[in-house]
Amino acid sequence: MSEIKHTRRDFIARSTAAGMIALGAESLFAPSAQAAEKNADMAIAKWVDQRIPGGAELKPIAVELTEKAIEGIGGLNRFVTQGDIVWVKPNIGWDRTPELAANTNPDVVATLVRLCYEAGAKKVKVGDNPCDLAKKTYDSSGIAAAAESAGAEVVFLDRNRFRDMAIGGKRVKNIPIYPEILECDLVINVPIVKHHGLTNATMCMKNYMGVIENRRTFHQAIADCLVDLTRFMKPQVCVLDGIRILKNHGPKGGNSDDVELKATVAAGIDIVALDAWGAELMGLKPDGVQSTVQGDALGLGTMNYRALNLNEIGVS
Amino acid sequence: MKLGFWRSVNVRRGIQILFLLVFIAGVVWTRPVPGVEPNPILKLWFFLDPLIFLATWLAAHAVPAAAMLALILVVFTLILGRVFCGWICPFGTIHDLAGHCFGGWQRNPKSREHWSPRQRIKYYLLIGFLVMAVFGGHWVTLIDPLVLLYRTTTVALLPGLQWAVEEGSTAAFQSDPGVGPLRLTAVTEPVYEFFRDHVFTKPNQAFLGSGLIAIVFLVLVALNGYRRRFWCRYLCPLGALLGLFARWPLLRRKTDQATCNQCDLCGAGCHGAATAAPGSAWIPSECMGCLNCTDACNRGGLTFQFVAPWSREPPREGLGISRRTALGAAAGGIVGLALVRTTPQARGQRYHAKLIRPPGSRPESEFLARCTGCGLCLKICPTGALQPALLEAGLEGLWTPRLVPQIGYCDYTCNLCGQICPTGAIEPFPLEIKQQTKIGLAAFDTTRCIPYAYGRDCMVCEEHCPVPDKAIYFLEVDVLDRHGAPAKIKQPRIDADLCIGCGVCENVCPLKDLPGVRVFSGNETRHPDNQPILPASDLPY
Question: For B143-167, what is each residue's pLDDT tens digit?
């Protein structure tokens, strides 16, 4: 009986060769446009067809827009290393269905989870600290089901497992933060663009309020607190969901009349720029949200997102 | 004849433990699961309870169809006597276990373990309470043993366990002690997560007045140190009702007089103290069928056998209830009702501002005529908002549910309390109706609310208001700061037409001592007389 023998040396040699070939193949076959986008700071993928289909037809569009936006900043390989544990942090704030645009679009979240795995992540966790009852909110937002089907571990933030941390902000010195999030190799912040009674709009910076507890006093100086929190969280990459946006009665909404279909997704490394773009999507000026203005002033990013290496992608 | 381990008393003990575990499992399983209607089987204990059936029927003249199941227990008792008390009742089992621990029947059995005329007290109590029920007072169900145990488990025992599990595991989590690579949290975290995900309703759950409920329970259990099954023999209204049905049971105890030497071993172990003296006749209304007597008799002189209902053999003894005392008890019931009803609140002259009933609750008098205070709604409320009332609803409303917004709020997409209520005190409103049912009205305390009192933005309440068009809105107003410089702040207001009184605003207010927005019972849908706001014309409700 013949037997194929693999020595360790043989194995290392062969796998190195295979790896070289794979690397070479990528550089050979990748579209040339992609090379220029490798260092893009921000990408906006927009559905450019006159008609934006609603309902079930919106799902493949949300998936494609997310893929294009991520592709537009050079793919998740830029942020995810082989074997990473990634926390995808959507806005799962309220017990509302996806149609009411009070939470991040579940298809955007699921696509991100898939892209993380494709980029080599070992595990992807999805979770937020909802304002409404967590189990109901995870369910009705559609995010739990979508993320799970994409292979993510859906995590409920346990109130008894937060840890008080000294974040050394100007306004916020100590705040209980969920340790499991910080222990991840990468946090991808993926909020929805929506109206907020106090701040006019809630986007990326405000979404970090979902990693903490004792957040109710933040509202008294919301911009100061968000700047402190954002600086502590050190955002690497954010994705802003503008598939459906909530134009009024935010952040909880509940009226389908307040929802507008925009079919656009942005991704980027500059959180302030993304928030400035989101404000425009809401019909505000880029400086219409105070936390964006302060983030810009304190050097967390730039409000002038057009000055960045911007990649605008039309999808139809 | 001895059968060793499988003898009848051990079978009975096994069945008792089984039913106790089933009962506790039922309490634990009463958990809010999103999108799932609670299983009606969770209410089965209360449907089987003829005391709840009778009292509710007398007081409210209406019972849910499923409560007809109580007839099963009545027929069961007519045939077998108070076997429910001796074999099934979970509260009885706790008394047995306590009695066993106290060793009460071993200390001085002969003087203690015989029937006492005071065992008639429970019948007089029952008579008084049922007369009260005829006039609409539903108070007796408050001390129904199943209700009492369910409430105690929900309000005191489980939260006590939860406190121990949560605090213990959190302490371990935060210090993470270990020896080398071995971590204590490797054990404590999975245990904690099991309880969190499968047993507890919400994190850090606690109930107002749980101390009183725990003390009542502990005192009743401690009384086993004085007399075994003190509660069952002297006080239990359900035991009394079943005792009335058990006066001529088909299964009766027969003493072989030729064998009996009046050693009184049978009396020493008797749960119900169902004989008045050594060798005297058996009192079926007190007998719980525990079979300790047949087991204890060394001569095999005692047997249980089926007889015709009209049979005069074997001899039995009645209750000895005197007509005069019974009439006195009946009068006592009326006097008692008068005492709890002659209050301004019960006479409809005022409404308690903080008596916020769960949505679907009937008008107060009808509510009280149905509510047993069992605690099912308290247990299933996902936010832990429902709390046992102390005196907010008067003495008559002791331990009935009320919403305490500082502790929890009425979740906009939840109607579990109405679905779980076994007597229909809270009606099972569909979600669309529930969302339009006002249980109160919020009001800002401008001396507390941060934008009013301290001139800063806040608006946490507005953000959480679940009404799609927002019952809380804000106005941008000009204020002056301490230096006289003008500033703009957002001040919240309530739209009284839209506010449903869910209480989430009060719950999330950053002021945890005395919230700046509070919900009061005024404007509640169930009381037209307590509605100060003239409704808008274009609202559907």
Answer: 999 999 999 999 999 999 999 999 9
Answer whether B457 sits within 8 Å of A219, measured CB to CB.
yes
Q: Using alpha carbons only, what angle is made at residue B82 by residues B80 and B88, rounded to the nearest 5 degrees?
A: 100
Residue A3: inside a domain? no
Q: Does A285 touch chain B (CB under 8 A)?
A: no
Token pair belonging to A39 = 């260092």
Tell me the pLDDT tens digit for each residue of A19-47.
555 444 444 333 434 444 568 999 999 99
Whose tokens are 């509660």? That residue is B231
Please report whether residue A10 resides in a domain. Answer: no
Provide mean pLDDT across the span B392-414: 95
A175: in domain: yes
- How many domains is chain A partitioned into structurally? 1
Nearest to B511 by CA among A217, A198, A160: A217
Cα–Cα–Cα angle for B505, B506, B507, nearest 5°?
A: 90
Q: Which of residues 139-158 of A touch B (CB under 8 A)?
A: 139-140, 158
Average pLDDT, stretch A135-156? 96
Residues of chain B contacting A159 with CB distance shorter than 8 Å: 203-204
Give a yes or no: residue A4 inside a domain: no
Structural domain including A46 reads: 34-315
Residues of A in contact with B35 (CB under 8 A): 136, 139
Task: Go through the domains of chain B in sequence order and give each one's CATH number.
Answer: 437-541 (3.30.70.20)
CATH number at residue A154: 3.40.50.11440
Q: Which of residues 426-465 of B touch A (CB under 8 A)?
A: 450, 456-460, 462-465
Q: Among candidates A109, A117, A120, A115, which has minimal Cα distance to A72?
A: A115
Interface check for B495 against chain A (CB to CB < 8 A): the answer is no
